[in-house]
């Protein structure tokens, strides 16, 4: 099966799918954010929340087509999510060392700024793990969808040409 | 465990066997998704909602989507047979493994909620780690979810390593596919 055929397969014009995704997407996004932001007090957590936030994008891609979603999502945004998560996580850990504690010893924040231990956990859960997981889920999806095409802009251009090349 | 939990266990067993036996890959992926959802519900029966959510989101959700995406790029061989031919040597090996596990290992395991299980402590130990976490989480971390407290606070460095592993996995996929963009 050629590349252009595959893409027309995954692009659905079914009204049922489009409508249900339109209705469901705000709820899944809210639920993902709830799990991530409220994970320290209720079941769930940033890993689950981040995964559900990522899945919301996957759902949109399934309904509205992978290529339009890929163009809508800026690469710098996903790069920022994934690397930003790692940087925030590491920075939180190093900050506690700078304040005289051990790596990720949040009580150092309490001594220095009077912040509850709780906020250190929120920082690495919401600012670290949730960002990394949601970014990586989206990355895996688009990387799998693209396969062995080097760059997305070239890939988009090739698609137009490929339609006539295939027969 | 209730009747519902046993029904669920049988459902999981059947979907697991169906996943192995279906010849059509699409059917196998669909029953595998059903298997993951069954596992997620079983985890809630075992009072592990955090694990259940992970199973539902990652295994039933993301994995199914990634597998579907992968087979949409392949061809589907047309066939009349619904089930794969059973590979007898493989069944013998797996059957022997399951028999050994079922007869020798399972009877030695502690029942769910057994108060004499080592997780509640063992001779010579003042307080077991699990009991310590359950008793001191709120005082130590001001968080009410003990699982989150263990992951983010008590075992924060391990979680840092796991986050880096996920990050490395994304980078590795991009390197294998020779791509330089995340989307």
Overview features:
heterodimer, A: 167 residues, mainly alpha, 8 helices, elongated, B: 183 residues, 7 helices
Task: Explain what you see.
Chain B: It comes from Natrialba taiwanensis DSM 12281. Chain B: Keywords: Cell membrane, Membrane, Transmembrane, Transmembrane helix, Transport. Chain B: Residues 10-75 form the MrpA C-terminal/MbhD domain. The complex is a heterodimer of chains A (167) and B (183). By secondary structure, chain A is mainly alpha-helical. Chain A has one domain. Chain A is built from 8 helices and no strands. Chain A is elongated. Mean pLDDT of chain A is 81; it is low at 1-10 and 160-167. Chain B is 68% helix and 0% strand. The longest helix of chain B has 23 residues, at 49-71. The model of chain B has no long low-confidence stretch (mean pLDDT 88). Classes of the chains: A mainly alpha (167), B mainly alpha (183). The interface between A and B is large, with 66 and 47 residues.
Topology:
The complex is a heterodimer of chains A (about 170) and B (about 180).
Chain A: H1 3-10, H2 15-37, H3 46-64, H4 66-72, H5 75-98, H6 107-113, H7 117-146, H8 152-165
Helix pairs in contact in A: 2-3, 3-4, 3-7, 5-7
Chain B: H1 3-21, H2 25-45, H3 49-71, H4 88-105, H5 129-141, H6 146-154, H7 156-176
Helix pairs in contact in B: 1-2, 2-3, 5-6, 6-7
